[in-house]
Amino acid sequence: MSDCIFCKIIAGELASDKLYEDEGAVAFRDIHPQAPVHFLVVPKRHIASVAEITPENSGAAAHCFEVIAKLAVQEKLSGGFRVISNCGENAGQTVPHIHFHVLAGKTLGAAMV
After folding, report:
1. Which of 7, 13, 43, 103 lies 20 to 30 Å from 110, alpha-carbon distance?
2. Model confidence at 109, in pLDDT bands (50, 70, 90)?
């Protein structure tokens, strides 16, 4: 999608602080971190949100979780981390490209956000 900020990051048109990239996903630090460690994992395939996962594209989302597991080791998140995906405007999704926030580096508590 030509106007999708994450598609532009994936294409190299916009800069990001990349942590990881492979054929199916990219991970980069959030520009407005909500925890000492806060990065996003984004599939390279454009899927608007979790609500649009289908049997045909679910592998892209699954791959993101494989990347999250690798990055948890790389970033030394052995104390735990939280994974969040907002789905739709009312849930706070601001970029219509599925992505997973990974937060860590402090005690996040029982509250979901």
Report:
1. 43
2. confident
